[in-house]
Amino acid sequence: MSETVHPVPDDFNARIGPAELDALLKAEESDPHGHWMEQAKRLQWTKFPEQSGDWSFDEDDFRINWFADGKLNLSVNCLDRHLEKHGDRTAIIFEADEPGHGHRYTYRELYEETCRFANLLKQRGVHRGNRVMIYMPMIPEAAAAMLACARIGAIHSVIFGGFSPESVAGRIADCDACAVITADEGVRGGKHIPLKRNVDAALEHRDVQSVIVVTRTGADVPMKDGRDVSYSAVRDQLSTECEAEAMDAEDPLFILYTSGSTGKPKGVVHTTGGYAVWAAATFDWVFDYRDDDVFWCTADVGWITGHTYVVYGPLMNGATSVMFDGVPNFPDFGRFWETVDRLGVTIFYTAPTAIRALMREGDEPVKRYSRKSIRLLGTVGEPINPEAWEWYWRVVGDGRCPVVDTWWQTETGGILISPFPGATPMKPGSATKPLPGVKPLLVDSEGKELHGATSGNLCISASWPGQMRTVWGDHRRFFETYFSTYRGLYFTGDGCRRDEDGYYWITGRVDDVINVSGHRIGTAEVESALVAHPLVAEAAVVAFPHDIKGQAIHAYVTLNAGEEGGEDLRRELNQQVRKEIGALASPERIQFAPTLPKTRSGKIMRRILRKIAEGETAGFGDTSTLADPTVVDQLLAGAREFQ
Ligand code: PRX
């Protein structure tokens, strides 16, 4: 474990230095209400709130509300309020898959595009409170579509373009969406993704009233009469003004589906006021935002990072945000840095998996470009190993740009643990310290709080404005998933170490969630996709460490009696997972196993499966409760081909 400390670089003149951070932390501690009301002033409210946090994590009195008596509209905060002073400032720089192709939208243009979209949604009968699915590439119209929903009070649910039609169908059914906004096709790394055709396939299960299709490639796609509308065909007739709904602070803003340790993905619900305050504040604090910055977060809007740090956080702060529709290795491994130089990017935020993939290609593709515009680097999505951190710092940042390792989750709405780039000395591999108002706590497996330098399960003891409010349609599941493991605490699902300096080191998930290249995948989902194959009797899925992806999937599959596994069946099973979930969940390894290690009561001992997948051959602990102890040797023999 690295214990190197990198001080804040001398010439990094942040707005928030150690003294300012200290004052901020003290203000929150001495007067939380006053602190949060101060943060609420970042926004423009139709009615400024008088209440700040009103919450309890106890079962009898369970509630989470922030700024509940306030009223506001988020598209107004992202757009209208900037028009007078900064209407001509660039809001979004669209960088297409093809280098240099793309365009810029000023705040005024994005405002007009958003109003057009909002008017079209209204024409199609979409009202406040209705759900709208967005299944789009990383094009500015995706941001406009999100903001249009926010403008009329519809609840958006963005689905990453890599998810399959079955996944789209499941989400549409879960939230009973009335409309889908999509594009004819997406383009990634030169490959075309048939988004509209996927939507059509999803809607075979359950139709919606409207499908709005944005033109990205101009591909010829089937259009269903009465349901489908081509956005480009109607765009010019749509008004560029649309009145914004005054939303209650606790009205839902969006639903974002994410995987958990059990069952189907759950619809994480974020509401308007608290999410907005948290997105605006954290963007400003962590990225030391200034008016002339060009901010590039490489995440897709299909993930929470794209919601908070491509769209809402930057736009609420009046920033210029890059929307990148490509991949780091197309047309070659210099793509990020070529783009940084061309667009003058000053703040660059990406995932450890991308950093590791680039690091493997050596320094040359980085050094080929100047990167002198960059002043701050960030990472998110999974633990970053110290070697990758050091490479990012030394090679990409030339040792002059702070690196903010930001820990957070879909559920948290925005960053919770991160350095302040101008105030927090960095330790490679540590997300450092909680932001003001964030109260982390480590507990043992019984829920007893652990003090000082120690390791345990990471919980949060107090609510913060950006916290999710419920699981769509299943409030009980919300409580059960996050608040029932340790009474009175929000349980993150992560393991964590705290060192002598109070720095937090996230070690990864301690539940049955796998983080493949920063994408969150539930073992239960992959297992149910595998057992849907007619030859499969049973499946168990675990993670193993992977050099680039962080973690990858090892699937143990037991076939029906008399069936035999082989390469063809492996391909079929992979195909099955792609069909049910998407390519991102397809197992790296499929091991055909005669049986799975079960206790006498029939419970699968995943601990053993994990160890075998990690390449261990001994030290399986107590196996005496196994119904058939010889199964371990059989599994070890089967795993040899992967080592
Ligand atoms: O395990 C943690 C890991 O990603 C999980 C959350 O995944 P998701 O909801 O998809 O959100 C990802 C983007 C915010 C966490 O429970 N994780 C996220 N950021 C970090 C991290 N692990 C270590 N260090 C991080 N900086």
UniProtKB/TrEMBL annotation:
Family annotation (SUPFAM superfamilies): Acetyl-CoA synthetase-like
Catalytic reactions on record: acetate + ATP + CoA = acetyl-CoA + AMP + diphosphate
GO molecular function: acetate-CoA ligase activity
Pfam families xrefs: ACAS_N, AMP-binding, AMP-binding_C
Positions of modified residues (N6-acetyllysine): K603
PTM notes: Acetylated. Deacetylation by the SIR2-homolog deacetylase activates the enzyme.
Record: residues binding ATP: G381, E382, P383, D405, T406, W407, W408, Q409, T410, D494, R509, R520
Enzyme Commission number, as recorded: 6.2.1.1
Enzyme's top EC category: ligase
Record: residues binding CoA: R188, G189, G190, K191, T305, N329, S517, R578
Co-factor requirement: Mg(2+)
Binding of Mg(2+), residues: V531, H533, V536
NCBIfam families (alphabetical): Ac_CoA_lig_AcsA (TIGR02188), PRK00174.1 (NF001208)
Family per record: Belongs to the ATP-dependent AMP-binding enzyme family.
Protein name: Acetyl-coenzyme A synthetase
